[in-house]
Amino acid sequence: MKFSAITSACAGAAFVGNVVAHPGMAKIVDEIKANIMSRQGGPVDPALNSNELIGDLLTLQDSQLTPVAKDIKATILNQANGESLETYSNVPRLGTSQCKADTCCVWQYIANEMVTAFKGPSGRCTNAARAAVRLGFHDAAGWSKNTGPDGGADGSLILAPEEIRRPGNRGLEEVVTLTQSWFNKYKGYGISAADLIQMGANVATVVCPLGPRTKTYIGRKDNSKAAPDGLLPPVDASADFLIKLFQDKTIQPNGLVALLGAHSTAQQRFVDPRRAGDPQDSTPGVWDMLYYNETISPNAPARVFKFASDIKLAADPRMSRLFTAFAAPNNAAQLPWNLLYAREYVRLSLLGVNNINSLTDCTKVLPQPVRTFVPNDRCEVKTWMSSTKNVPAIANALLDGKLITSIPGLSSLLSSILGGLLGLIGIGRTGSNC
C-alpha cells in the first residue's frame, strides 16, 4: 500500500466506518500501521501494549460475563475496536415510562446539551470540551494498583470538594461547575456523577473534528471520598516517573503515547501564564496528528507550547517509535491513532470500576464523528501561530471555538505582529489555500 493511499484511506469516512463496524477489518488497519511504522522508525514493540485486566474482570470467568463485559474485555485486550458507530433511533420522550425503561434514554438528552456546550461556531471544539476531556482523565487517573479501593472513575472530582482545590486540577473549576449543573438537573433520573464525567469526556472527544467515537459505558458507582493524592502526571516529570505512574494504572507506553495525543486540541493557561492560550499544536480545537509532529520538531510554529514532560516522553526509547510513527505527514496515522486512543480510553475510563459486569453500552447517544475538517480561518490561525507576539483576543477566540476572523480589527492585529506582510503569507485567502 502506497503512503498516499494510506493518507486517503485514513481520511475516508466510509473506510473508517467499515473498520469500526467490522472487527475483521482490523487486518487492514494493521497493514496501515505496519506501513507507517516501517517508514517512521521501525516496528513498535507489542510488549509495550496495555494488556492487563481491570476491575471485576480480574476475578470473573468468561462464562460469567455479560455481552457488554465481554466486549469491554476484548477491547482492552486489543481484540475488539474501541470505537462504535451505533446509532440511536426513536428516542423516547424524557420522563416517559419508555424512557425510564431504557438506561440510555436520559443520556441522549444529556449528550445533546453537551454537544451545544462543546461545539464552537467555527466547528472546532470549545474550551469546555477540552476541559471535559481533561476532567475525564483526572477523575479516572486518581487510581493506582497500589493505593487501595478508592479513586478511579467514581465521580469524586465533582463530589469531593477537596479534589478541585489540588494544584493538578487547576483550570478545571469552570467545567466542574458546568458538570455539576448537569448532575443537579438530571440526577433525579438516576444518573451517576461518575458516568456523567466520562460521558462528557467522550462527547467532547467526538465533537472535536477528527476525534474518535469512543465506546461509552453507563453504570459506575459514585464515591464522595476524595481520590488518593499524587496520582496525576506533573508537566515537568521525567519519562521514567511518568511511565511508571501509568504502568501502575495498567497503561503501558504504547497506550500512554496514544492518550497523550489528546493534547492536540489543548491550549495551556497556567503552566506558563505569560503564554496563556498558546496551543500544544498549530490546530487548536482539532483532534489531528500535528501534536506528535510538532512536539518532536525543532521547527514547530513559534506559538506551539510544549510540555517538558511531553518532550521527555517523546524521546524515551520505550515511546519514541510510536510517537514518531504518529508524527507521519499529512495525518496519515489518524485512523490507527483514533483506534488506539479509543481502546486505551475505554481502559482509562474504567479504572477503579469494580462492577464492569453490570454496565450498559450507551455509545449510541454520542454524535457521529467529523472525519474531515478545514476551518475558514485556517490561514489567519497559521499566521498567528507563526508569531511570537501574544494577542489575547486571538487566543480567547480560539478557546471559545470561534473563527478568529470574527475578531474586530483582526487585520490590524496581524499586521502589528508581522509588519504588513499579510499578503505574502496568505491572509485574505480562505480554506486550505494558504
From TrEMBL:
Residues annotated to bind Ca(2+) 2: 264, 281, 283, 288
SS bond partners: 104-362, 125-208
Pfam families: peroxidase
GO biological process terms, semicolon-separated: cellular response to oxidative stress; hydrogen peroxide catabolic process; response to reactive oxygen species
Cofactor needs: Ca(2+); heme b
Enzyme class: oxidoreductase
Site (Transition state stabilizer): 134
Record keywords: Calcium, Disulfide bond, Glycoprotein, Heme, Iron, Metal-binding, Oxidoreductase, Peroxidase
Entry EC no(s): 1.11.1.-
Entry coiled-coil feature ranges: none
PANTHER family to which the protein is assigned, alphabetical: CATALASE-PEROXIDASE (PTHR31356:SF66), THYLAKOID LUMENAL 29 KDA PROTEIN, CHLOROPLASTIC-RELATED (PTHR31356)
Name listed for the protein in its UniProt record: Peroxidase
Protein's organism: Phomopsis amygdali
